[in-house]
Amino acid sequence: MGVSTVFRIELDRPNGVYYAGEVVKGKVVLHLRKEVKCRGLKVRLLGQARAHWHTGGGEHRTDYDGVKTFQDHRITLFGNFFSSDVIDEGGENPTFGIAMGEGTIYVPCDDMNAPRELIVRVMDYDWGKRDDLLGEMVLDARELVASHEPRTYDLTRNGKSNSGAHGNTPKVTLSGSVMPLSALLPSGSTGATGAVVAQYCLVLEVHSCANLRSADWVGHNDVYVQTYFPPEGSVMVPGKGLPKPEKRTIIPAGDHEFPFVMPLRTDAPGSAEIGVGDYSYIRYHLHANIDLAAWADPASRRAITVLPSRPMPAPASLLPAVCHRPAEELHSVACCGCRCGKLGAVAISLATERQAYAIGERIEISTATVANHSKKAVEVELVLVRYTILTTTGRAFRGATKGGITRVAVLARATVSVGQTKEECCGAVGEGPLMPPAAPSFFGALGRAWGGDPVTWTYALELQVRSEGGGMGAVASASVPVLISAAPPFPNSVPPTGSYPPVDVSAEIPWSIATKAISSGDEYLSTGPLLSGSEDALGQATLVATGVPVFVALPTEARYIEDQSQLTFQPFELQWPESLDEWPAPGGGSKDGGVSTVVGGGNGDKGGGFAELLESLRSTLDRRTAVGGWVVSNPKAASLLSPEQMGVVLSDTPLSLEQPSVARELGLGLSGRLTCAHVLAAVQACPFAKTNVALALAPMLADPHNREPLLQELFSFDRQRVEAAMPKASSPSSGAQQAHGPVPPLPGRPEALADHTTAYRT
To answer: pTM of the full predicted structure?
Structure first.
């Protein structure tokens, strides 16, 4: 077992299931046989999409890889060396802060006075080898904190200032504050030295870098920022490089617990195991390691499931749709693009009442007709089909793609005799099958477009017809593109049956449904709820396992994982009841005219006023779940929350990393009544999380024209970001409800989707 007999990651939730935007809380449990000299103990939350496939074999084999990092959050739990997240493909002018916490570095300090002298280095991350220095500087952190504003600093490399891109001076923009460590960690931990026993913490915020030299032969820099105290006895010589970090610290022998808190992105894509090519997936895992050497670090890994809040259906996806195939030829043999043995034609029609369903909802089939004009009886199947595109993002073959088709589930079967027309091939009209468990549709992640999207997928319902017993025969089909959404729509968002004529989708490809999905843009107002926690399902949805357990470490990595039991991961999805008529409608009115816009809100409160909310906060460590549950159970009280009450709740949330998610729950509960006064009170109650709290609430504002007092409370650098997140009100009466236009284009979606789909079918 090496230096440790116990090395594992324990989470506050044993099943390891979290919603996008939640905070992952846990601890690293460690028992050391003897003291260990190391560079430190670190923990990392990594969320990635990965894809790999190959062609040929042996010496003629060619491998294709795609990787995109959605989140790479790192914390030094023990040691004297600290760093930010890595900005994947950041290039020469990276911007930090697109994801919450990605530019934040926590440096322990003994008191409320920030250290006078820190060395800050901007680095290019290179996996498996030494990282490249892009620029460095000596920072007076106390002066930075006292300024209350971001500062831009020149960087040098080997003492030279013109060492950046195109001979320019590289720069970094930073801001800083000091906070009690208790606002960052849920509790203390054991150990004699290191960050875990400091009373205060310097929060160093990296905003951006500029003019960074290129350290990669191909592609863009993967940029992160590291900081450390100058090694004792080191001398800084003008015109020379700064002293390198002293990467040696001692973890005493014995039992240790190191708590950590890490926020998930509010727009985090959901975990998914796709299985096209050699592998394709979106995974999140926690990785802790004692930093000894490049390849032999004792480590622990724990995979988690992230449930997405998107996609949700745009109104166009809730209209009926129909696909007609009036004369599809059948052949007895179809192989390698060649067809022979004409059997005659079939006519196929498939129509659904809408094009968007959540897992477990009943698929409303209005038409499933096959007219058999061929020479043989035909077999008919209603199939849920997943269309996948893998894309390379690596240095070699960047942009190469591979398509795949997967029959996710056969939902119904029928046989149609020669000359027969069967009108209910999927059972009785209006009594269709349930949407089976499958990863919600994914058209690409929000973020940096040049990173690409290694794996994207969409779905279609297909009525497939082939000659009876014709395993080698061609398949004729009618296809309706469908969206598998993160949650069902509100009942009042779905038009009554027969109120609209069906949209003819006969000429549409499966990927066309992306234009009818809410995958990006404003996440707070839509045809359905924003899933921010388990309480939003209100006991209606259940977690169901999808697929088989997977091993989440490469063989080379697994050799150094102390607890192998944590390497097996079972994917989960939410399964909903087939009908949820009691759900409230969007925009502040329930089905029966109530005020709630949260899932399960109904009309009446369950006796829990503001005092009960405060009492529940003091009896649990999971503040977001407590607040979300209260909002769901007490929609009227939540919608009448005053700015002062909002400030009290956030003041009673001790962890600064959890305050933005708590603020978002309160904002959702206000049901379109969130004012700038509410946000101002929230920001003032969260001195160490002002910007993230403001960003969480800004899209929900009903009175953005009153924003000036709120903006004055923020750093000047952050005001632009917060103002950009507000609804664009054209007049004082314009609120968040009027700020929505058409669904914005989806970043990262492959360009040649029509060509791919055509290629699959032939």
So the answer is: 0.85
CB 741 within 8 A of CB 525: no
Average pLDDT, the chain: 83
Model confidence band, residue 196 (pLDDT cutoffs 50, 70, 90): very low
Total residues belonging to the chain: 762
Number of C-beta neighbours around residue 393 at 10 A: 24
And the tokens for 473? 């025969």
Q: What is the DSSP letter of 195?
A: G
Question: Residue 285: helix, strand or coil by DSSP?
Answer: strand
Distance in angstroms (rounded) separating the CA atoms of residues 56 and 61: 4
Asked which of 309, 325, 356 is the last residue of a domain, the reply is 309
Q: How far is CA 440 from CA 130, 286, 320, in A?
A: 39, 23, 20
Return d(Cα 250, Cα 291) in angstroms, integer.
11
73 beta partners: 45
CA distance 747 to 223: 22
* 8 Å CB contact between 432 and 408: no
At residue 360, does pLDDT exceed 60?
Answer: yes
Which residue type does 151 have? R
Q: Fill in the amino acid letter for 301.
A: R
Look at residues 86, 5, 16 and name the one whose alpha carbon lies nearest to residue 48.
86
Tens of pLDDT along 551-570? 887 666 666 676 677 788 88
Q: Which of 689, 568, 564 lies closest to 623, judged by CA?
A: 689
- Which residues, listed in sequence order, are joined to residue 254 by a DSSP beta bridge? 32
| Average pLDDT over every residue of 104-125 | 88
Among the listed ranges 39-43, 405-409, 561-565, which one has the minimum average pLDDT value? 561-565
Q: CA nearest 389: which of 80, 61, 636, 64?
A: 64
Return the pLDDT at 348. Answer: 95
Per residue in 709-733, pLDDT (tens digit) is 999 999 887 898 899 889 875 433 3
Q: Looking at the structure, do residues 26 and 154 belong to the same domain, yes or no?
A: no
With 0-12 / 13-18 / 19 or more C-beta atoms within 10 angstroms meaning exposed / middle / buried, residue 419 is: exposed
Flag whether 76 is in a domain.
Answer: no
Residue 87 has what DSSP assignment?
Answer: B
Domain that holds residue 45: 1-68+252-309
For 105, the token pair is: 């570095």
Contact 291, 39 (CB under 8 A): yes
CA distance 758 to 762: 6
- pLDDT at residue 512, as a whole number: 96
The answer to whether residue 427 sits within a structural domain is yes
**CATH number for 377:** 2.60.40.640
First to last CA, the chain: 54
Q: Extract the tokens encoding 248.
A: 């040696």
Place of tokens 């905003």: 207
Write down the pLDDT at residue 416: 92
Please give the backbone phi and psi of residue 667, each rounded to the nearest 5 degrees, phi first.
-65, -40
